[in-house]
Amino acid sequence: MNDQTNDVAAVRRFNRFYTRIIGLLEDGMHRTRFTLSEARVLHEIGKRGATSGSELASELGMDRAQVSRLLMRLVGQDQVYITPGNDDRRRSRVCLTAEGEETYAHLSLMSDEAASGLLEPLDRSGRHRLLQAMKLIMRLLSGSPEKGPLALRPHRIGELGWLTHRQAVLYNQEYGWNSEFEALIARIYADYETAPADPPRSLWVADFDGEIAGSVFVVPAAGEEGTAQLRMLYVEPGFRGKGIGAMLVDQAVVFARNAGYRHMILWTQDCLVSARRIYQGAGFVLAHEEKHHSFGADLNGQYWTLEL
Amino acid sequence: MNDQTNDVAAVRRFNRFYTRIIGLLEDGMHRTRFTLSEARVLHEIGKRGATSGSELASELGMDRAQVSRLLMRLVGQDQVYITPGNDDRRRSRVCLTAEGEETYAHLSLMSDEAASGLLEPLDRSGRHRLLQAMKLIMRLLSGSPEKGPLALRPHRIGELGWLTHRQAVLYNQEYGWNSEFEALIARIYADYETAPADPPRSLWVADFDGEIAGSVFVVPAAGEEGTAQLRMLYVEPGFRGKGIGAMLVDQAVVFARNAGYRHMILWTQDCLVSARRIYQGAGFVLAHEEKHHSFGADLNGQYWTLEL
DNA sequence: ACGATATAGTTGATGATGTCAACTATATCG
DNA sequence: CGATATAGTTGACATCATCAACTATATCGT
To answer: Keywords on this record (chains A, B) (predicted)?
Structure first.
């Protein structure tokens, strides 16, 4: 409850903060002979090439009446010309004149400079983190995380640490596992990375527009010729229920089969319910279970196998 | 250069995006009998308890003239009363009336609901990431990372992974070190975490308002009774040059001395110039050097010692 | 103490913005 | 074909934004 209140306060704080930032950026526009609305309308027309009044109104959140008058003014300044629509003669076609194109380019340049001014005081790492944060906010708030490209790819520098970080935090939040777990998976990833290339191994990161949505890897099972082990399957909570886990497991199974493995095993805990469904879906069967106390919790470990 | 252009475009994209978000939130205000400016002014007065016209103007980025007239209107509506200032009689004191307080509470509630509406579709992890991203953006763009509390504290769940992640990325960017390095430090952190509590060891995270600015740890040196080893000193680029590295090393030295260690050693690479200065400043002396090829680079390893 | 200078606030003027409602012309659909 | 919806225009009016002029008070250096 209190968390909720704090969260809302933090969001409002950010809104006030960013309102000011946007205000600062827009102040720069006042050195032109155009008002802010005019600039926004010109930018929108320029971006779309040609558009209509009602589109502008809805896109920029302005009143149709206001758009109408504003366009008149821009026509008078020779920045814009309006022709009746071809197919629908209620709708008029709004385009930039040659002069309007120039203005558009100029305004765009000024906006670039203003945005540049935000980035300028930051070093490379700061810029990168700023942009990642912005991208994340847009993704979270646009509320449609389903569309967009999801790619399975190898891990990059720093991502073993990232995967360790995320899983440690998640399983601590969800199941209370302690730092013993974090140390264990740090070692598991280190072992993966330093293992010899021959019996084949592979790790996949599910990459959603630069953000890590999940991961898994396959290594040769210790001391069992011809057997591959599936390890460290995880999907970010925000990306669950979209089949990413199944995609990762399928990819791993295909890899193991192609690499010549004849069996596949994995170890998991029975509290990881949704993971179990994925393993079942991929054809794994439960071999045996074993109670143990690890990561500060009483667990029921499960060994699953799959014949390839 | 192209990166730069992309970055600017991304910032502008976010600005447009968030302009719309703010617009949506503000739309809710129109169900009240107050205009947006009035609501903002009331909110600002309510937040501050009492204020002056010029403060409002500068805080909200409005014209003094406009604030003046707006306040007149609010006085007419019995939301606000104005008394001449006590110490400075140019400055007037602007306060909310009882009715104004009510309005303030009501508007505040509406804003809370609007902000709540942003959070509502998100799950816990999504909310957390949204808020972290917002905090990060505020910190990066407010451009004053110097003020604020810096604390040295133990690590929390997930932070071993985070430290691995950050250092792998940083040293890759700065020196081209490959994932061999990431695997090594993942193992080093895992070893730290699973080491026995007796001979004493400790890890500190430099925490700046919830963000990790740097870290270091002390462990007993392998096979050398009475000797402590300083390991994994690092400071985030954005926080460098503020003495955080020295603070971490000092803390580590004090800890080692109090824990009864008589010597302290560390291993570093000569390319890490600023770290070297910190070690020298703390009294470490260079014992010997040794060339080696690690992490995909030709390195010159240095062993430093300190008598406690 | 005094004058130059700065600051807080008010007032006037003017154009732009935001909002409603009324109106025309065209499109769409049963 | 008529009911209904949509695109755009126009009028009316209150608020917003901006500039400049003006008064009253404070501050600072000399």
So the answer is: Transferase
The nucleotide whose C1' lies nearest the CA of A35 is C16
Q: B2-121: which CATH topology?
A: Arc Repressor Mutant, subunit A (1.10.10)
Residue-range domain boundaries for chain A:
2-121, 150-307
Check residue B193 and give its pLDDT: 97
* Residue among B127, B138, B160 whose CB faces A183 most closely: B160
Q: Let me know if the fold of A2-121 is the same as that of A150-307.
A: no
CATH architecture type of domain A150-307: 3-Layer(aba) Sandwich (3.40)
Question: How far is the C-alpha of B94 from the C-alpha of B71, rounded, in Å?
Answer: 9
Q: What is the average pLDDT score of chain A?
A: 91
Q: Across chain B, how many H-helices and E-strands are there?
A: 10, 10
Q: B-chain residues within 8 Å CB-CB of A15?
A: 21-22, 25, 115
CA neighbor of A251 nearest in space, from A187, A196, A204: A204
Cα separation, B265 vs B261, in Å, equals 11
Which of A163, A187, A240 to mutate: most B Cβ within 10 Å?
A: A187
Tokens coding A306: 């799959």
Asked if the Cβ of residue B111 lies within 7 A of any atom of strand C, the reply is no
C-alpha distances (whole Å) from A215 to each of A135, A154, A160, A169, B242 are 21, 10, 10, 15, 37
pLDDT at A1 over 80: no
Beta strands in chain B (DSSP E): 50-51, 80-84, 92-96, 150-153, 202-208, 211-220, 227-235, 263-269, 285-294, 297-307
pLDDT number for residue B2: 59
Tens of pLDDT, residue by residue over B218-248, are 999 988 889 999 999 999 987 888 899 999 9
Structure tokens at A256: 């193991």
Q: Element (H or E) spanning A207, and its range?
A: strand A202-208
Q: What is the pTM of this model?
A: 0.70
